[in-house]
Write a structure and sequence with these properties.
455 residues; alpha/beta; Rossmann fold; 4-stranded parallel beta sheet; 18 helices; 41% helix; binds pyridoxal-5'-phosphate
Length: 455
């Protein structure tokens, strides 16, 4: 029998996270103060994040120790399995070998608890009583609710209104773990009230929800804010994924030629890909790492590299990133976790330096890919995960055409068991190809008056 599932022992959970900044040939440019346009230091983040996380945000240490209590919590679902996708290989009749790392086995069903647990842990260490956050598809909100519940911290979640309406079970999960959940834009914050005044029917967006959660945290002393993607410390925590995957592939006697992950703000992509990029930079390997984004929110493939805000209202520092403009509101596609206007700073620099690649996939194509995967492998993927699957299928088909056998690894970052409305829409023909015109992108970017970055 060919081994399908490659497992590690609990004792093999990595003891350190990997910080790619230590190895980057060009370090990320500094964040700027939006008023003075001068670089800002880490203390500007102090109202929002605990000290330990700010330290991780700016550290250049290559390895960061994972606290014992965090590793112990990780052991609820980690190490996660690595699968050889025999079923999908057969369905595609491809000479490629396909593997996937499955992060859907966590309590909330995605990779998000990999960072929610350490974030709640460090907040607890510094005496924080309440954490505010935003959530798109509901994945991050549920992960943080689970983590806060464990550490006895109150969790307040601003959930993008479109998802709040589409995904009542995600909200109930958060309530089960003791969190309070509000549809965003809400009338609880100035940022939310401003949006509602301009557009009472706003479906919301991650950028808007971030503005609301940040405002709430900035105005209360016992409250901090937590972000589920984009930031350096989030990507750092997620590297547990790739570090485990390398151990598992070594067990299988294999190494990937291509590593693929879906891309929202970059955390699960970073999590899987950065440990493999280390092998490129340190050992001269030549592993292609591809980020898969939606064609209707294509910041990596069609955005610009310049300074922009991380949120819609413009409350964050200015960050050097690939962006579609901070008030770009993506079409209401079901992959809520990928409806974000920008990309994290590290990933943006890596793309600019051509150390990683990006591909965009249409909304209809990704559901075709997801259904094909579910029928071949059994697991029903989250709509976000379907983007990575679409890239993996495209690369496997290329192998067939070229008659080459490559080894492909992708991140199955979450299951879709709470996303059945999306699949129902697909089966009833309600999901259409969506064409984002160049004029729409240009209009959004033309509204930016943030600093340009010379080539
Ligand atoms: C949040 C989420 C994403 C997008 O966020 P990244 O930071 O880019 O990983 C993708 N897939 C799932 C299942 C998610 O929950």
């Amino acid at each position: 029998m060919n081994t399908r599932k490659i497992l590690l022992e609990e004792s093999e959970i990595p003891e350190n996270w990997y910080n790619i900044i230590a190895d980057m040939p060009n370090k990320p440019l500094p964040p700027l103060h939006p008023g003075t346009l001068q670089p800002i230091g880490p203390d500007a983040l102090a109202p929002l994040f605990p000290e330990a996380l700010i330290k991780q945000e700016v550290t250049s240490d290559k390895w960061v120790a994972i606290p014992d209590e965090v590793r112990h919590m990780y052991s609820i679902w980690r190490p996660t399995p690595l699968y050889r996708a025999y079923g999908l290989e057969k369905a595609l009749d491809t000479p490629a070998k396909i593997y996937y790392k499955y992060e859907g086995v966590s309590p909330s069903g995605s990779h998000k608890p990999n960072t929610a647990i350490p974030q709640a842990y460090y907040n607890k260490q510094e005496g924080i009583k309440r954490i505010t956050t935003e959530t798109g598809a509901g994945q991050w909100g549920s992960a943080l609710s689970f983590a806060c519940q464990h550490f006895g911290i109150k969790c307040e979640v601003y959930m993008v209104k479109l998802s709040y309406q589409d995904k009542p079970y995600r909200k109930m999960m958060m309530n089960t773990w003791g969190a309070d959940v509000y549809p965003s834009p809400s009338d609880r914050t100035q940022a939310g009230r401003n949006i509602l005044a301009a557009n009472p029917d706003s479906p919301g967006s991650l950028g808007i929800a971030i503005s609301e959660a940040v405002e709430m945290a900035a105005t209360r002393d016992d409250t901090k804010y937590a972000l589920g993607s984009v930031l350096n410390h989030v990507k750092l925590h997620q590297t547990i994924i790739g570090l485990e995957a390398i151990k598992q592939l070594e067990k299988a006697g294999d190494m990937p030629d291509i590593v693929i992950a879906p891309f929202g703000g970059g955390s699960n992509f970073a999590g899987l890909a950065f440990p493999f990029l280390r092998l490129n930079m340190e050992e001269g390997k030549n592993i292609r790492c591809i980020a898969s984004e939606p064609a209707s929110c294509p910041k990596l493939t069609r955005g610009v590299f310049r300074y922009d805000f991380g949120d819609t209202a413009g409350m964050t520092p200015l960050l050097p990133m690939y962006t579609l403009g901070h008030d770009f509101i993506p079409a209401p596609i079901h992959a809520g976790g990928l409806r974000y206007h920008g990309a994290g700073v590290i990933v943006s620099q890596l793309l600019r330096d051509k150390l990683i690649e990006a591909q965009a996939h249409d909304n209809l194509e990704i559901f075709e890919a997801g259904v094909q995967f579910a029928r071949a492998e059994g697991i029903i993927p989250a709509p976000e995960a379907n983007h990575g699957i679409a890239t993996a299928i495209a690369e496997a088909k290329k192998c067939k055409e070229e008659g080459t056998s490559k080894t492909i690894l992708f991140n199955l970052c979450g299951h879709g068991n709470f996303d059945m409305k999306a699949y129902d829409d697909y089966f009833s023909g309600k999901i259409k190809q969506h064409e984002l015109t160049q004029a729409e992108i240009d209009t959004s970017i033309a509204r930016l008056n943030t600093p340009l970055i010379p080539a």
